[in-house]
Amino acid sequence: NLPIEAAIAAHRQRRTKDKNAIMTMVLREAGTAHRTKMQRVSPVFVLDPTKNRCLHYEQMRPNQPSHLVTLDPDILKEHDELEIREDLIDCGIDICTPDVLALWSDNFDYEAPRKGFLHSVLKDYELNGKTIHTHIVDEHYAARVKNLRAYDAVTKDILSRWAYPICPDSNLVRDQTYRLTKGNVYREEGVVLARSCHIGPRTVIGRATAIGDGSEISNSVIGRRCIIGRNVKISGAYIWDDASIGDGTVVKDAIVANEASVGKKCNIMPGALLSYGVYISDGMTIKSRITKVKRESGYDQDEIIRGETDKEIVGQKGEGFEYETSEDED
């Protein structure tokens, strides 16, 4: 819900005075422990507050041996006032001039907008003379979803109405019918709730979903046409459309994707992810990411093929195998 008119106006005014001002980044003030901040990487911005100019950028990891910022001595000589800030959330909103596209096309080794492009442009200021500026806001809401941790954090903020009017009961998507009830519970039409089930705060339930007797759901998003059995406990989880959860199963801080099915008395542990169409047999404990398909590199493009089921992980009647993540994946 962040209006960017002020950022665009400031960018245009700055560009009129200085043709080398090629980009403005929109950043949001937040505490150092805000849940929408990146967890594995802490972005550090060195700014000239008198010109709203970014002078240096680094990414720090919690496990790196040194947490010192290395600045070019010329930055200290040429600027009377500096701010070194680690409390800013990168919204992923950049207002750019055509010069940015030209720099990207001339440098094919830029792999990321911040770690590659931003860092390099700031480092090469003496060579190219291009400057990058910031527009920092302390009101409204904006965040970039780039991994599952951010997906969870932004969803929780939306359900808590920090991003109002971006919230389920605004029904911004065609054919949605969500209504807000006590405790930030959002329900669509056609939901079937057993008399003895309990729906806790910050929960979304989609159309035509049925929830059985004795089940408890809180801090979770349940999609459309889902079947939740009896005595199921779901907390901090995301159950997508057409999924089913068997009687007595516990799902905590996990994702169950479209058309996935979980048997009876299973335990889906925090951080687990069941991909599209995965089936988990009764009584299984899942701690990892499970999928039915894998990607194989081809000549022109990658090919998606069905993998071999691992019965030790998904059970005798299950379908799926453990997905191996890369080291850089968050």
TrEMBL record:
It is found in: Cytoplasm, Cytosol. Residues 182-286 form the EIF2B subunit epsilon/gamma LbH domain. It comes from the Eukaryota. Gene3D superfamilies: Hexapeptide repeat proteins, Spore Coat Polysaccharide Biosynthesis Protein SpsA, Chain A. CDD domains: LbH_eIF2B_epsilon (cd05787). InterPro entries: eIF2B_epsilon, LbH_EIF2B3/5, Nucleotide-diphossugar_trans, Trimer_LpxA-like_sf. One of its GO terms (cellular component) is eukaryotic translation initiation factor 2B complex. The keyword Kinase does not apply. GO terms for molecular function: guanyl-nucleotide exchange factor activity; transferase activity; translation initiation factor activity; translation initiation factor binding. Keywords: Cytoplasm, Initiation factor, Protein biosynthesis, Transferase. Belongs to the eIF-2B gamma/epsilon subunits family. This is Nucleotide-diphospho-sugar transferase. It comes from Aureobasidium melanogenum.
